[in-house]
Design goal:
Elements: H1 35-43, H2 46-56, E1 75-79, H3 90-98, E2 102-105, H4 115-132, E3 138-143, H5 145-156, E4 161-167, H6 182-192, H7 196-201, H8 211-216, E5 225-231, E6 248-252, H9 263-274
Parallel strand pairs: 1-2, 1-3, 3-4, 4-5, 5-6
């Protein structure tokens, strides 16, 4: 499934969109249309997913966590996707509260800041939460770019983070996204380059050498669990880049935009939050 003919920087494959690739699950006749049209069509199902979520509310806020252990007030930090803020994680917040968890906010209004700066700020937020929770490491859930930041948070602050759950996050290549976010991403990369420090580091490029980029290029610290939730019908992110060997990879159905509100995905998140932590194996003396 990987495009092994292209390498971004010698350590991982590139996932560059071609003209014919289309998300899975489309009608046969749509497989003949250009890739960009198929991707737009699959994301066009988002309004139906909103309606599905609204209908699920009639079952009560705890429906997606039914039969699972109560969260017992444990804090969960939520991180929104690219360009959005905490207000877009409301469906996730409702599910978390219904499952007995305490929602902690990223304090992000628009997720467009330099990733290194954003993760530093999130590290401060996480430190305060952990201190108030008597030192217990934090659970983090992020969507899209929020999932990338969550992974960076776990990589840079393993003493603060126990488990990272990412939805639709291209963790094997953070630039493996298609047409929809590209204009904004291009504009922001040019904006970042206006600052000498960011230009020197190569900010917003695959060659960036900031602490965040160096950390996510390495395997996650063994004491931090990583869960990657992806959809093969994602029309924004190449789903192949979401599947990484170090993670528990879970496939769901639906669009990229609707991933954070589909009852199916919310159920997977609640299941992953509820399971017991995995204790890293001790290194062998042999």
């Amino acid at each position: 499934m990987r495009n092994s003919g292209l390498m971004s920087d010698g350590w991982r494959p590139s996932y560059l969109p071609d003209q014919i690739w289309a998300p899975k699950g489309l009608p046969g006749w749509m497989r003949a249309v250009p890739g960009w049209a198929a991707r737009a069509a699959t994301e066009g199902r988002f309004p139906l997913e909103v309606a599905e979520w609204e209908a699920s509310l009639l079952k009560g806020p705890g429906a997606v966590s039914r039969g699972l252990p109560d969260g017992d007030g444990r804090p969960v930090l939520t991180i929104p996707g690219f360009g959005f803020g905490d207000y877009t994680t409301v469906p996730l917040q409702i599910a978390l509260k219904g499952g007995g968890y305490t929602v902690k906010y990223s304090r992000i209004f628009s997720n467009i800041r330099c990733s290194n700066t954003a993760v530093d700020k999130l590290g401060q937020v996480a430190a305060r939460i952990v201190k108030r929770d008597n030192g217990r490491r934090l659970l983090v859930v992020g969507h899209s770019r929020g999932g990338l930041l969550a992974r960076g948070l776990g990589a840079l602050f393993p003493d603060l983070i126990e488990r990272v759950i990412a939805m639709g996050a291209p963790m094997d290549d953070e630039f493996a996204f298609y047409e929809l976010p590209r204009p904004a991403a291009f504009f922001l990369s040019r904006l970042y380059q206006l600052e000498p420090k960011h230009r020197e580091l190569g900010c917003a490029t695959s060659q960036c050498q900031c602490a965040y980029m160096q950390a996510i290029r390495k395997p996650m610290p063994p004491e931090v669990e990583l869960v990657s939730i992806y959809s093969a019908s994602d029309g924004v992110v190449d789903w192949r880049s979401c599947v990484v060997p170090e993670a528990t990879n879970v496939e769901v159905s639906g669009t990229h935009l609707g991933m954070g509100l589909k009852p199916e995905t919310l159920r997977v998140i609640m299941e992953q939050l509820a399971r017991d932590p995995v204790i890293p194996a001790e290194p062998s003396d042999q």
